[in-house]
């Protein structure tokens, strides 16, 4: 699938505002990929497709998880993360994208995970820092994204966990595992 086809598929499935978010994520992801010497083509495709399932009906996504044997533990952690995991499945099934780097970047763009690939890190971070994001903590992460991909991902995870704790929302275990992985690796670097 080329970028033009991917943009067409996403434009059909997203609301205008979310499509504009996607365009900003793609631009940010491409900059990060170039800065940190990550495969720009894979990063751009994953960034284009990262929210492909964002507006699928919740019941459809829940049914897909159950029927297709996807990680059923997802159903315990709120509906907001479903579109990422189910989206990777839909992108593979419906759009015939089979590149594992692209699919895992889509799958983990909301939760992160321990031992993320470089493509996953870039899409995860780009989704968090794209220029349309205006919450207070984003500027520190943007500053770190100029010089240290891992530190920027660590701060993204820390901020996400803080936000979810304050809202008393359950946190998917992959997010904790990612935080711990980055925390340990960053401490080792010092």
TrEMBL record:
All residue ranges annotated as the HD domain in the record: 18-132
Entry-linked CDD domains: HDc
InterPro entries registered for this protein in UniProt: Diverse_Catalytic_Enzymes, HD/PDEase_dom, HD_domain, YqeK
Protein name: bis(5'-nucleosyl)-tetraphosphatase (symmetrical)
Gene Ontology terms for molecular function: bis(5'-nucleosyl)-tetraphosphatase (symmetrical) activity
Organism, as annotated: Evansella tamaricis
PANTHER family: BIS(5'-NUCLEOSYL)-TETRAPHOSPHATASE, SYMMETRICAL, SLR1885 PROTEIN
Pfam families: HD
């Amino acid at each position: 699938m080329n970028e033009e086809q991917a943009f067409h598929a996403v434009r059909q499935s997203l609301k205008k505002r979310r499509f504009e978010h996607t365009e900003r994520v793609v631009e940010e992801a491409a900059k990060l990929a170039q800065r940190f010497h990550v495969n720009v083509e894979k990063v751009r495709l994953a960034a284009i497709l990262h929210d492909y399932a964002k507006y699928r009906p919740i019941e459809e996504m829940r049914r897909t998880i159950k029927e297709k044997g996807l990680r059923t533990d997802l159903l315990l952690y709120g509906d907001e993360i479903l579109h990422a995991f189910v989206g990777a499945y839909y992108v593979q099934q419906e759009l015939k994208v089979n590149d594992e780097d692209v699919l895992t970047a889509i799958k983990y763009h909301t939760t992160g995970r321990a031992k993320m690939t470089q493509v996953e890190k870039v899409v995860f971070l780009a989704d968090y820092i794209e220029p349309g994001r205006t919450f207070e903590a984003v500027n520190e992460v943007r500053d770190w994204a100029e010089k240290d991909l891992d530190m920027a991902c660590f701060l993204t995870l820390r901020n996400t966990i803080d936000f979810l704790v304050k809202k008393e929302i359950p946190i998917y275990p992959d997010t904790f595992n990612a935080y711990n992985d980055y925390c340990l690796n960053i401490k080792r670097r010092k």
